[in-house]
């Protein structure tokens, strides 16, 4: 990848004419944004194959990555005149970029390919003046992201046990949590301390598989301890990275980690919590429960699994309940079998039954369809949007997305 000097702040001021062009053409770009993003990624991968490793190709095939990019671009265009709100909307993008180690010299690559894709889709409608205006807008967005990411890099590196870039960790221990989920305890190869993370966050992992580099994100499934991190990974039949962890890597093998990131963290307060997970979605929910109980909060811990064989962390959760019998209520829902509190699927009536009465906060993670159903049910039960917290395993997108 060529090294390109990132734009300076002096180059980012849009002229009044460019502002008018952006305003006038934004509806046209928005109308064609799906087509633009569909063209953008193949174009970038062809011109700059080195960046391919940063993207999960399963998300490319599903269209999730393209929709996430389109949503971020549209959100910024709509909110750029309100810097505080724009920064809030871009927070998710910043967290993903930090966990991938994105650097300033990668932004011009994206800008070049994005403008080329816009040109291919819009054709003659993209005049030189309009192209220049949108290039300036992209540079403005890039500079904002670079600034926010640099703040995160510096803050983490300055922590005790923090670092910048990649850090090599070895697998210190493994544990089979269910038929398809295995935990991996990772300790730094340099023997130094490990910076704390916020319960609920994930960490970036770089793997070398058959001569290729892959980047993935995995939730940190335990509380920080200053010595190790723990990730718990579901073996996906078609997942190259997850199969590599399950089928190839053993105790003593090494992986490279990037800084922890993620926004699914516990909001302060003393209100009760309803924590809901489906399948491997339990991995960020478990440390959130531990943190909340340590703070003395009431927790309803509701987990849905296919059956007993696929239900992970049962012993850990049972141990939490023994320590906090008056604070923690545990509910298991299995689609099959009789080894749970309920048999079938999670639905609104079950949520109604277990939803704490006094203005609770709700956190939920699982497959897209699961989260969509939970989100809709909680809304119908009167839980306000700002008290419903969730996170996608992959590019963020609306829960009502098709």
TrEMBL record:
Domain Globin, chain residue ranges per copy: 13-150
EC number: 1.14.12.17
Keyword Heme annotated: yes
InterPro entries: Cbr1-like_FAD-bd_dom, FAD-bd_FR_type, FNR_nucleotide-bd, Globin, Globin-like_sf, Globin/Proto, OxRdtase_FAD/NAD-bd, Riboflavin_synthase-like_b-brl
Catalytic activity: 2 nitric oxide + NADH + 2 O2 = 2 nitrate + NAD(+) + H(+); 2 nitric oxide + NADPH + 2 O2 = 2 nitrate + NADP(+) + H(+)
MF term (GO), any: nitric oxide dioxygenase NAD(P)H activity
Protein name in the entry: nitric oxide dioxygenase
Natural source organism: Marinobacter azerbaijanicus
Chain's gene name: hmpA
